[in-house]
Write a structure and sequence with these properties.
alpha/beta, 16 helices, 59% helix, 7% strand, globular
Amino acid sequence: MTTVWDDVVGQEPAVAVLRGAALDPSQMTHAWLLTGPPGSGRSNAARAFAAALQDPSGDVTSHACATVLHGTHPDVTVVATEGVQIRADTVRPLVELAQRSPSQGRWRVIIIEDADRLNETSGNVLLKAIEEPPERTVWLLCAPSPQDVLVTLRSRSRSVALRVPSVEAVADLLVRRDGVDPAVAAVAARAAQSHIGIARRLARDPDARARRARVLSIPPRVRGVGDAVLAAGELVETAQADAKAATEDRDATERTALLRSMGAEGAATVPPALRAQVRQLEEEQKRRATRAQRDVLDRAMTDLLSLYRDVLVVQLRAGVELVNVEHEEAVRTLAETSTPEQTVRRMDAIGQARTRLAGNVAPLLAVEAMTIALRPQG
């Protein structure tokens, strides 16, 4: 029998806890905090748990499990924010929903995929619901680490930690679930550093592999400040273009749907009475585009970190496998023309750029400071 747990790869201890709770009511609690590094499969684990709560057998062919996994179960709600933060006006309807008994299933399950994006206001709104839970409601909060979640929320939730799955486990999943060639799957899993979602995209999308290769070509090209500034501009422009491509069609569809619902489709100008609603939609879309751009840049920086990690491996003769085997020549050239101390400083500069982006620093300024730090030092 194929179960909902089969795609939660490399997480045997966490699966044992969650499966046990789905089978044994004495092990259940009303709020769970699933934590793990990006790509560890937090969202997959949360959905699998939600399905098992509706049908403890976990059989993917059962109606309850199938509808949960396809996002159509009436008693399972998933919140996946596309903004920088989860705002209070997003949480309040969830609190109201939590008070209702399940309509068809055994539990009403509410999954918040990015609980680390709850701000103080929205977190306090959610706290009231978690402190006084209805009998058949379960909250599943997902975040990179417990420290990323407001202390008041994590102290009232049962924590389950996920780990980074092995490259072999991720590659096997790509072959088994997506029919990817084993050699391609192995390269994608290694390049993604076991991030399941990114590995899948690299394995299935040649354009994604090409974009990653362009990012990794930056360090060898940066010979001075001028090169660094040009590389930074290229990186930010690419991120903006990718974010626009990912959101443009959806933005237009949402605007058309809004105007249609208001009876103003095809109007040359937005009627004054509708401008507030259109402005609100545009603000939401702007926040979504901002997050999309940051996510693209952060992924690029993670790829650069993996390259310098390989450089450090070569410099220290660590004897472990390279992440970027297909870029070994560039890695060895960088290793021969710098010292381990310089490599660590470059990695620190990339980490600082990620921190600055998370703190709302203008992307071009943050990336320029990073690429300038990557240039050869005398």
